[in-house]
Design a protein that fits this description.
The complex is a heterodimer. By secondary structure, chain A is an alpha/beta fold. Chain A folds into two domains: 120 residues, Aspartate Aminotransferase, domain 1 (Alpha-Beta Complex); 258 residues, Type I PLP-dependent aspartate aminotransferase-like (Major domain) (Aspartate Aminotransferase, domain 2, 3-Layer(aba) Sandwich), CATH 3.40.640.10. Chain A is built from 13 helices and 13 strands. In chain A, helix 5 runs parallel beside helix 11 and helix 6 crosses helix 7. Chain A is globular, with a radius of gyration of 24 Å. The relative contact order of chain A is 0.14. By secondary structure, chain B is of the alpha/beta class. In chain B, strands 1-9-8-7-6-2-3 form a seven-stranded mixed β-sheet, sandwiched between helices. A three-stranded antiparallel β-sheet of chain B has the order 12-14-13, covered by helices on one side. In chain B, a hairpin with a 2-residue loop joins strand 10 and strand 11. Chain B is globular. Classes of the chains: A alpha/beta, B alpha/beta. The interface between A and B is large, with 188 and 190 residues.
Chain lengths: 433, 480
């Protein structure tokens, strides 16, 4: 090949890089064989304690659910996972149809008409929803609940930078954990682009004031939901949401130490041309057969450039396919069973914790999905350490971000916890008290 | 080379016969929030597996064949890395676990920060951004924070006309003004740059080698001009596959760089994502990196949130660990020596393919290319054809077409990037296919593809009357 190029050696192909910027190789260790890499990486990861080795009651947006083997088998098809973005529709009908199915399943769950193929995660989906609401309404303020994930709030703040959106926080009712409606009424105004409601909220509480919130929100209503909860809870579209966002991880994707994640993004049909991200549409081929392709690309960065709806290009497609597979394998009935089981287990666990002296659970007396706040008489850090020593990982301390709750932590449970995991947690808490 | 893709008339999941919905349990959700019905299909597991298997057979990945998408670096993804990412210690680790229980994850993140800093010639790295475009978004936030901290407000981002669309969009999304600069002989025009750079210059974003595959040989002068105006230099790492071990953004004078781990570092592209876009910076920008950074104290790894000048968060948690562990394994496997061979082979393949194609397609601008090149299909017009037709016809030969119609400054652009994981035989077969297509009956080419699961797709119709879901399809039909 070098001969064909008339080059004496491979270095001649780098002659266009000026000597002043050349470096001499990479000061990294020499390469390893496959067996050596496997041994090295598994060896390092052995320092982790996860799953059954350390029963963990963390949630806060990411949940350890059981993923059926069929879902893994589907996304392990290399035609899916080693493909690029389906720019060439004729060669990529399978990926395109799988994504159209994903969009369709998300629309049924959320009660929206259209969904994009993904945003990076739930937090950037919220950021994009705020930008979209501002585009639609021309207004500059987004009203959000105080009871939301602080990382999501920080991401929203960075996304709001460009159009200089203001973010207004609405407190929660200290008795119920739900949105304080009186405060919401005074927070909205002429410049409100959207009201953002979470359901279940960050404390795991189902907020049933949805119709009131819809009446109060003067413009768009953006709802953030745990998508699994929508198997049993009203579709946000049913109570007037305009945009629905979610962290899609619970639908068939692993936690994986926080990523990759799946930003679910869906909206009403009237807003589709203002929607960010890639979308798949149904159309026909030259012979009149049903076909799929990426569509409305004039909204996107490679066409519209600095006036694009978003800068997103690479997204989380494979996780969308996994979610479509998860929803299809479970079916509506299976999904409902998982969601119901999560509620029952959380109720059961909260009841058992409530019996341990020194703890209150759930700290808010309302209906929850699969997590709840536990109040503690002692500072939670001490409880956390004591639990770890007995080989169980408690919930997430809320003290740094919600000091008004006193000593408190957020506990989650799912169908992956075994009876003995819950027993171990309760025994360990008894030991603390 | 002949190719026949599977053709299945596979209905939508919603169109299959479904078991009836089971009645919901009562009393689990507040009454005002009870869901009356859930209209998701109820199918057997084997039906679902067969459905998606058929769909996969109507798709094309790097494991299927040659995939020379320019600027996308579609190289082989080592299988070991899939196994490693599927370990329970990866999949089930929760980011809020006590650091003492996730030392394995934290060590990999810490070491990968260091490896990427070395590769990029940078001082510090954040692994958090979710993709290249988010790396750009993060990098511009960092540049903005840096200037503000020095009491300066700068709002212009300089971009050459060869830049990726995401560069423009990232700047636009943050409310900055884009100043586009024309190229000269396929490189940044220094006179235009001198005119554009000034007190309002926040940063220049540059891809080097640029999207024509040409190395910007006057990059140090470019850096001097931008730095002289008080601006920063941002390196778009989409084309990093060309320079490993030969040069690096630090040596070229850049201050900020994003890496596309789903390109150069083989994390599979997943049909459109997930990607990962870590960002490296010089020491002067380190205080502004997103929280947390992964740090080491003695032999323990920890998360450092105590960073008062940080820009905060651009996504939740610490980055896409499931992909970062794959890139880490890839770098271990290649080593410093192997990575340098990667770029040598990628550049050799690109220049060889350019040589093989140049009798058939015009290649504007003389000289060497790095990992990719851009040809023009303008001459096809004489036969009533376009680059698009050539691209579609290549599918019938079993090749994924290259990137087309980008960069915009080349008429009828045709942009192959072969990568290092292709043989001479494949490159020859691809060049022969292009030659054969140009000699074919134009009608056969214009109506291509013929061997894929569908014929030419009507994208205009899709955009004019969007049907984006089963629900919209049902409403359109006026049923249900």
């Amino acid at each position: 090949m070098l001969r064909a190029l008339g080059a004496p050696d491979v270095d001649a192909l780098f002659a266009d890089i000026p000597a002043k910027v050349r470096v001499k190789g990479l000061p990294l260790p020499r390469g390893l064989s496959e067996a050596e890499v496997a041994a090295a990486v598994t060896g390092i990861l052995r320092a982790n304690r996860v799953g059954e080795d350390l029963p963990t009651f963390l949630g806060a947006g990411l949940y350890d659910h059981y993923v059926p083997a069929a879902v893994r088998a589907i996304v392990s098809r290399s035609e899916f996972y080693t493909a690029y973005t389906p720019y060439q529709a004729e060669l990529s009908q399978g990926v395109l149809q799988a994504l159209f199915e994903y969009q369709s399943l998300i629309c049924e769950l959320t009660g929206m008409d259209a969904a994009n193929t993904s945003m990076y995660d739930g937090s950037t989906a919220l950021g994009e929803a705020a930008l979209m609401a501002a585009r639609i309404t021309g207004k500059r303020e987004v009203v959000v609940p105080r009871a939301m994930h602080w990382e999501r709030r920080q991401v929203l703040q960075n996304y709001a930078r460009g159009p200089k959106l203001r973010i207004r926080d609405v407190p929660f009712d200290p008795r119920t954990g739900k949105l304080d409606l009186a405060a919401l009424r005074s927070a909205v105004g002429d410049d409100t682009a959207a009201v953002y409601l979470e359901n279940p909220n960050f404390f795991g509480v189902f907020d049933d004031q949805v119709d009131e919130v819809r009446r109060i929100a003067p413009t768009l209503l953006v709802v953030g939901a745990n998508p699994l909860s929508l198997a049993i809870a009203r579709a946000p579209g049913d109570y007037g949401a305009d945009i629905v966002i979610a962290e899609g991880q619970p639908l068939g994707n692993p936690i994986a130490f926080g990523g990759p994640l799946l930003g679910v993004f869906a909206c009403r049909e009237e807003y589709i041309r203002k929607m960010p991200g890639r979308v798949i549409g149904m159309t026909q081929d030259a012979d009149g057969r049903r076909a799929f392709c990426m569509t409305m690309q004039s909204r996107e960065q490679h066409i519209r450039r600095e006036r694009a709806m978003s800068n997103i290009c690479t997204n989380e497609t494979l996780l969308s396919v996994a979610s479509a597979a998860y929803l299809a394998v479970l079916g509506g009935n299976g999904l409902r069973r998982v969601a119901e089981e999560n509620v029952r287990r959380a109720r059961d666990l909260a009841k058992r914790i409530a019996l341990v002296p020194g703890f209150r659970a759930p700290a808010f007396p309302e209906d929850h999905f699969n997590e709840f706040v536990v109040g503690s008489e002692r500072p939670y850090a001490a409880v956390h350490e004591a639990l770890l020593r007995t080989g169980v990982h408690g919930g997430l301390s809320l003290e740094p971000h919600f000091p008004e709750l006193g000593h408190a932590a957020l506990f989650a449970t799912t169908e992956v916890h075994r009876q003995e995991d819950g027993d171990r947690l309760v025994r360990a808490l008894e030991g603390v008290a | 080379m002949t190719y026949r893709q599977a053709v299945w008339d596979e209905p939508l999941l919603f169109e299959k016969r479904s078991e009836p919905a089971a009645p919901p349990s009562e009393g689990l959700v507040p009454r005002a929030l009870e869901r009356p019905s859930l209209d998701l299909p109820n199918l057997r597991e084997w039906e679902v597996v067969r459905h998606f298997t058929r769909l996969s057979e109507m798709s094309f990945g790097i494991d299927s064949g040659f995939y020379p998408l320019g600027s996308c670096t579609m190289k082989y993804n080592p299988k070991l890395n899939e196994e490693l990412a599927a370990l329970p210690q990866v999949k089930r680790a929760h980011p809020y676990q006590d650091p003492s229980s996730v030392q394995g994850c934290l060590r990999i993140l810490y070491e990968l920060q260091g490896m990427l800093a070395t590769i990029g010639g940078m001082d510090a790295v954040t692994l958090q951004p979710a993709a290249g475009a988010q790396g750009e978004f993060t990098g511009l936030l960092l540049a903005d924070a840096y200037h503000r901290d020095r009491g300066e407000t700068r709002d212009e981002v300089l971009l050459p006309d060869t830049a990726h669309g995401t560069n423009f969009a990232s700047a636009g999304m943050l409310g900055f003004k884009v100043v586009e600069m024309p190229s000269r002989e396929g490189q940044v025009d220094l006179a235009a740059l001198r005119k554009a750079a000034g007190q309002r210059t926040l940063a220049l974003m540059l891809t080097n080698p640029n999207t024509l595959g040409i190395f910007e040989s006057r990059v140090l002068e470019i850096a001097d001009i931008v730095h002289g105006a008080g601006g920063l230099l941002y390196y778009d790492g989409a084309n990093f596959n060309a320079i490993l071990g030969k040069t690096n953004p630090g040596a070229m004078g850049f201050d900020i760089v994003h890496f596309n781990l789903h390109k150069t570092f083989t994390t599979p592209h997943g049909g459109g994502g997930p990607g990962v876009g870590p960002v490296g910076v010089r020491a002067l920008l380190e205080p502004y990196l997103p929280v947390p950074q992964v740090v080491r104290t003695g032999d323990r790894y920890a998360l450092d949130y105590d960073r008062p000048k940080s820009i905060g968060k651009v996504r939740a948690w610490y980055g896409s660990f499931g992909l970062l562990v794959r890139a880490y394994a890839y770098i271990l496997a290649q080593g410093g020596d192997g990575l340098e061979r990667v770029s040598e082979r990628a550049v050799l393949n690109a220049n060889y393919l350019m040589k093989r194609l140049s009798p058939h397609l015009e290649v504007p601008y003389a000289g060497l290319r790095k990992h990719e090149f851009v040809a023009s299909g303008a001459r096809l017009k004489e036969r009533g054809l376009r680059t698009l037709d050539l691209a579609k016809r290549l599918m019938d030969y079993g090749f994924h077409p290259p990137t087309v119609y980008f960069p915009h400054l080349i008429d009828e652009a045709f942009m192959p990037e072969p990568t290092e994981t292709e043989s001479k035989e494949t490159l020859d077969a691809f060049a022969d296919a292009v030659a054969a297509i140009l000699a074919e009956d134009p009608e056969v080419v214009r109506t291509a593809p013929h061997n894929t699961s569908v014929s030419r797709v009507d994208e205009v119709r899709a955009a004019r009357e969007p049907i984006l879901s089963w629900r919209m399809l049902r409403n359109r039909k006026g049923v249900g």
